[in-house]
Amino acid sequence: MSEILIGVDATPLPDTAEKKAKQMPDPSGFHILCMVPEIEETFNSGIAKADVTMYAEERLTTVLFVIKLGPDCYKDPTRFPTGPWCKEGDFILVRPNSGSRLKIHGREFRIINDDTVEGVVEDPRGIARG
User: Fold this and answer.
1) Angstrom distance (rounded) from CA 24 to CA 99
2) Which of 18, 24, 117, 119 is the most exposed place for a label (fewest CB within 10 A)?
3) Which distant-in-sequence residues (6+ apart) come within 8 Å of 83 by Cβ?
4) pLDDT tens by residue, the chain, 130 residues
């Protein structure tokens, strides 16, 4: 079992899916927790992508999946007179490099501001950075 040292005591890392899920951060204020969709390992032609290509695609992605909205998202009626720009479960479009990046158990997540959302898309397949 893996452990992490905190102070003098060793704290065991989560070993079940349920315990790992509890490590997911709750976004605070007007922040949105998003997951980066899995990057395909091959091009449409079937040729495998190099690790550096997959890394660049993950870092510079313009599509994110909304996991959770912070408690103050879209609450300001002067900034968001038409209401929320997205909801949990949406695929959204953002600028490359948006938000704070973090990896949890090998998956990349981002925490972005509520006004970072540039659009909502029903099916993100086929969307790539121009």
Assistant:
1) 16
2) 18
3) 74
4) 455 555 556 556 666 666 665 678 999 999 999 999 887 778 888 888 888 877 787 788 889 999 999 999 999 999 999 999 999 999 999 998 899 999 888 889 999 999 999 999 998 887 777 7
Q: For residue 28, which of 58, 73, 95 has the smallest C-alpha distance?
A: 73
Residue 59 phi, psi (nearest 5): -70, -35
Instruction: State both tokens at 106.
Output: 């090998």
Query: Which value, to the nearest 10 degrees, does the dihedral of the CA atoms of residues 103, 65, 95, 81 take?
Result: -130
Query: For 99, left (φ over 0), alpha (ψ -120 to 50), or beta?
Result: left
Among 61, 52, 49, 51, smallest CA distance to 125 is for 61
Q: What angle do CA 117, 29, 111 make, to 5 degrees?
A: 50
What spatial distance separates the first Cα and last Cα of the chain, rounded to whole Å? 44
**Residues 6+ positions from 60 with CB-CB distance below 8 Å:** 96, 97, 129
Whole-angstrom Cα distance, residue 61 to residue 3?
32
